[in-house]
Amino acid sequence: MHQRISRGAAAVSMVAASALLLAACSSDAETEETTSPAAETSESATATADAEAAAFPVTLDTVMGEVTVESEPQRVVTLGSHEHEYLYALGVAPVAVPVSWQGYDNGTGPWADADREAAGATPELFEPGTTTYDAEAIAAFEPDLIVATYPNHTMTEEEYTLLSGIAPVVTRPATDSEGNETAEWGVTLADELTILAEATGTTAEADQIISDIDAAYAEVRDAHPEWEGLTSQVGGFYEGQAFVYAAADTRNQFLANLGLDVASIEGTDEAWKQISAEQLDVLGELDSVVWQVATTPDSRGELEALPLFESLNTTETGGNLWLTDPVLEGAFFANSPSSIEYSLDAFVPMLEAALDGDPATEVVPFSSEG
């Protein structure tokens, strides 16, 4: 995207040739001074602006149909729990985002603060609604783009039509990078980031981010070839029943990107699979389970008290990981560029202990407090 500044001299007449030759050294020095860092920055900024302008209009193929963004958005409003973190990573500053489900300022956890600050974002916060969207409240922000690629609830055709009367609405892509229909709340980071980048004219930034994340995952896989093919799931305990998330869930995507098999439990085509106490042995042969209990701290004791818990392979081999830190729980759920880095730092040491096959190895839960 950066343009080289031309240093070619203009055509010089034969009469002036000797003078040019004598002045060659001083001319070179003057040229170096003329091509200042400020000039290069100006050229780069111009080139970037030109590239962004050339990206529009753009038509996106979303699960709700094709949507056209005519020009670079200036006032973006997000409706879901993590889209704003994706935009921060792309250098885009939304004007309004939903309140954080964990109560954080600026709508997001500490893992995304650096990206938010770099983007210059100080968004207004609003209650997005858990069953319906407040179109009047959204319209009050005067958006020129509405983003709902990871919404708080399934968007209806009626809601989509209503919101589209305010601004173009970008929902999740209709198909993934391999041409398969995308799953709600199961779009990969790369596919979601790509469509958001196309909508905001930041595809170059998205390409670099995806490349960096792929490299970070690859580094862990290369360091742990013994994890390839080992089975794992993310689960928890709710209202008296254990559960595991679908293989497409973003948390299980994270484990899969580390080389683990997260698709070994049948019946997880939906968002999650509930498991009664009598059926807990469906998890019996898993090599590891990430038990998400940070927001339900009593769940660990309830799970461990289930009659079949002691017979699980994860219990016998020490493969249970207890996610007890609320900050990590939020980052793990977010699955954004900034949260991936945070989650890798936290999970790799726990997985190393859980997957060594030795039940005597203590799996120390991560703590954001050190």
Please give a quick description of this structure.
The chain is an alpha/beta fold.
What does this structure look like?
The chain has about 375 residues and is α/β, with parallel strands linked by helices. The chain folds into 2 domains: about 60-215, Nitrogenase molybdenum iron protein domain (Rossmann fold, 3-Layer(aba) Sandwich); about 225-355, 3-Layer(aba) Sandwich (Rossmann fold), CATH 3.40.50.1980. The chain is about 40% helix and about 15% strand. The chain has helices at about 15-20, 25-35, 35-55, 85-90, 115-120, 135-140, 155-165, 190-200, 205-225, 250-255, 300-305, 315, 325-335, 335-355; strands spanning about 60, 65-70, 75-80, 95-100, 125, 145-150, 170, 230-240, 240-245, 270-275, 290, 320-325. The protein has a 5-stranded mixed sheet with strand order 10-9-8-11-12. A 3-stranded parallel sheet has the order 3-6-7, with helices on both faces. Strand 4 (about 95-100), helix 5 and strand 5 (about 125) form a beta-alpha-beta unit. The longest helix has 21 residues, at about 205-225. The relative contact order is 0.10.
